[in-house]
Structures are given as structure tokens and as C-alpha cells.
Amino acid sequence: MALQIYNTLTGKKEEFVPLEPGRIRMYVCGITVYDFCHIGHARSAIVFDVIYRFLTSLGYQVSYVRNFTDIDDKILRRAASEGVDYKTIADRFIGSFHEDMEALGLLPPTMEPLATEHISEMIEIVRRLVEKGVAYKAGTDVYFSVELFSGYGKLSGRDLVDMVAGARVEVDENKRNPMDFVLWKGSKPGEPFWESPWGPGRPGWHIECSAMARKYLGATIDLHGGGKDLVFPHHENEIAQAEAAFDTPFVRYWIHNGFVNINNEKMSKSLGNFITIRDVLESVHPESLRLFVISKHYRSPVDFCDETVGEAERGLERLYATVETALEKTAKEGGADYPADELKRQDGELYEKLDSLSALIAEAMENDFNTAQAVGYIFTLQRNLQRFLDKSGRKDLKGAAARLAAMAADSLVRHCRAMGLLMVAPEVFFDRQRRLKLKATGMSEDELNDLIALRHQARVEKNFAESDRIRKELEKRRIQLEDTPKGTKWRVSLLQPPNE
């Protein structure tokens, strides 16, 4: 099927046809760099990373731009509170953003422009709007006149008359309409500023993205994305100023991801449930957070809590465990070729799920990037492969059986990696996972190894009561043991505390 995208502008799914065959111009609103990124930022970043990966896999040349807002009231307030200049704050949190995105396994975009490096482009757009009469100077500021743009409200579906009726009284009496938005802000004493035809000042927030998108992607771009909270006023205002200035359509397809709630409440600092990415990654594997995000359709809201994150983490562990077992059981005989009929005879259902996986995932992703459905197909293959592996007990697979299991494991890895999952070897994943979770129990690895050694000695001496006591003691610390021919393995159940 052709790629279908839900376009916020039209409120329906549409077949995606790029402006230029073979090339896609995509702009995603970045962050204002005044603090550490939270999990709402993580969701948006992961969503558009998966979209970027998928579009690239279809053979498109994707020009992906994600900006930084590095001058803003919040940045200036933080700089003032710390007694430093705004650039110190911006540079610090741009650095932390890159650290977080690297930890999450995101591919870098094609370009990451800074607002302060594109002041001249913003001034040029404002100049055009003033000359056309759709923008005006009020005091030291310049505003866009929303009444003079006939399409205002077309993205959000809001009616201008209703918006004006419900608007709060504005402090600036020079503003002609309470819905008019600022394009250029006159500087206040002590603030950084740039010279302009309207006096020293700095750009308004909305003008930044219109200027940077046009510079790097052209007058009309294919895709523009961001969180649902940006639909109004930010993206609505981007459309108004860009289209009024240049008389061309600004964006052809608008994509917006849904909100992240915390324990069924809106995330906010005032509620005390504001969670940064680095806070989460102290106890949750980055791929677990990624799986949590893509297990829901990008337009749906998601609830971040112990249960939902724990479900994602357990699912990721199952994927890695199945691949690890398959690799171990097929290490000696996984590479020889066998005819399809022979492979089907080993397990017809597993072969069918393996054979159909690529087409099913492609169909899901082409249906408005339905990662939730794609993930469901991946786990269906994982369950079928795990059942097939379980049938052999502790014995290694041979012949066609080994080949079928190896092919299924390879397919799991390949399709997961297309979404940023299963990016490391299973032993690397489980080693990190154990250490990450062990830290949350308050027990050191040396202490754990000492107890495992004591338990092993008790088993050798057939002191099973002592062996059971040590096992139960560890279970109270959420540490679960598994005895294997290669020794005792341990795992930690992280998110749910043990019952006392």
C-alpha cells in the first residue's frame, strides 16, 4: 500500500506524495534549551526518529532539520538566577540534550540549527510582513495581525472570533487584537539584543522555525512535526507568518505526537511529577523507554507509570532472551540452507509468522506509522520462536530446525533494529540490565556474588534448607536466581517493590 499519513491540517489520513520525487523535507520543532529534557521530549524525539528511520528505509533522501531555541525568556531568567550569560545556559543544555539523545539511541538529524545564528533570516521575514501591512510596530515590539490572514485557525480548527472573545485582556494596549502575536521583541535593559529596522531586540519564538525551515528546506516543506501541544499557537502562527510573507503553502503534511501523562495525571513541575530523561535512565534501560514509546500509536496519549514501563522492560527482556537462546542453540548448525518445505515441516506456524513478518510490518508502518501494530507482529514471532526453542529443552537444535530458529532470530533482530531496538548483543544487554537493576536494590555485585557462592556451597553439601533461605532472602531484594549448566544466572525485578 502507499504510505498514508494523518495530516493534522486536514484532520484525516492522506496518501503521502513528496513535493520532489525521492526526496523528503522534514522539520521537527526542537527544544528551548534552559533545562534538562523530560520524558515528553523523549517521546517526541523517539517518534520522529522512528519515522526518520522508516522513511529512509523506503529509499527516500530525507533532509531532517531539528532546531534549538537558544534565546528565550526562560533562558534569560535562568541565566540571571545563576549570574551567567544566556549562551552559557544554552550551551550547557544543548550539550545535555545531545547526551540524552545519544543515550536513547537516536540518529542525528541532517541539521540542528540555532535560532541565534539565523537572526538576519528572521528580520527579513518580519520586514516583508511589515511591508505587506500584515505586521505592525507597537511600542518597541512588532506584531503579526491575525485578522489580516484569512487562514488563521486552519491547523487547530479554532475560530478567530471565538478566540478573541475568550482571550484574556492584554497588558500591551498598543496591540490591536489580543490574538496578535509578537514577531520581534524590543530589548529590555541588560538583555542581549540584535539590531533591526525596529530598534534593538530579539526575535519572537514563532518566527524562528519559519525562518530556519525556509532556509534549509525551501519555501514549502513536506513534513513538519512536533508535540500536540505545539499545534496552537506555535504551529498555527508559523503557518500564518510564513504564508503571509511568501504567498506559498508552508507545510503539506503536519504530524503531531500525543501527550505523556504520569500515573494518569498531566506531567508538570507544579504537580511534582516532572521526570527528566536522565532520571528515568538511572533505573530503566534506554531501549525499554523506546519500546514503551513505540508500543503505542504516536498520536495516542501514553501513561508513564511503573506498570506500563515495567511491561515494556519485561517485553524487551523477552526479545533479548529469545534471541540469546536461539543464538546459543543454533551456534553449531545455523547457517546451512534448506528448502522451504523442510523448514515448514519443523514448525509450520513459526515459518508462516517468519515469512509474513516483513510485509506485515511494512503495511503497519505505511498506515500512519503504526508502530504499535508493528511491535505486536514482532512479539508474535518472538512467542512462536520461543515455543519452538522450548520444545528442544536443553538440547541444541540441528539441521533444518537450527536453520529455522536462526532465520527467525535474525528476522527479529533486523526488524527491531529498524526501530532502534536490540542494538547490542544479548550478553551486553543483560549485563547492563543486571547492573542497572542491582543498583536499585542497594546491594553491591560483590555482596550478591558472595551469597550466590554460599548458596552453591550449601547445594554441594546438600544443605537445601540453607540454599532455599538464601534464595528467598535474595527474592526479597527482587533478585531472582536461575540455575543453568553454565552456572547460576541472576536477574532483578525493578519496578515493583517486593511484598514484605
Would you mind describing this structure in some detail?
The chain has helices at residues 39-57, 73-82, 86-103, 119-132, 160-166, 205-217, 231-246, 277-280, 286-294, 306-330, 340-346, 348-366, 371-391, 399-417, 426-441, 445-460, 464-476; strands spanning 4-7, 12-15, 23-28, 61-66, 135-138, 141-144, 181-186, 201-203, 221-227, 251-257, 260-262, 265-266, 302-304, 479-484, 487-492. It has 17 helices and 15 strands. The chain starts with a strand and ends in an 8-residue tail after the last strand. The longest helix has 25 residues, at 306-330. A 4-stranded parallel sheet has the order 4-3-9-10, with helices on both faces. 49% of the residues lie in helices and 14% in strands. By secondary structure, the protein is an alpha/beta fold. The chain folds into 3 domains: 21-280, HUPs (Rossmann fold); 326-423, Orthogonal Bundle (Isoleucyl-tRNA Synthetase, Domain 1); 427-492, no CATH class. Strand 5 and strand 6 (141-144) form a beta hairpin.
Q: In CATH terms, what is the architecture of the largest domain?
A: 3-Layer(aba) Sandwich
Characterize the quaternary organization of these chains: single chain
Strand order of the largest sheet: 4-3-9-10
Structural class, by secondary structure, is alpha/beta
Distance between the termini: 54 Å
How much helix is in the residues?
A: 40-55%
Name of the CATH homologous superfamily of the largest domain:
HUPs
Q: What is the fold-level CATH name, i.e. the topology of the largest domain?
A: Rossmann fold
Averaging pLDDT over every residue, what do you get? 92
Radius of gyration: 27 Å
Global shape: globular
Low-confidence stretches: 494-500
Number of domains: 3
Q: Largest sheet at a glance?
A: 4 strands, parallel
The count of strands amounts to 15
The CATH class assignment of the largest domain is Alpha Beta
> Number of helical runs?
17
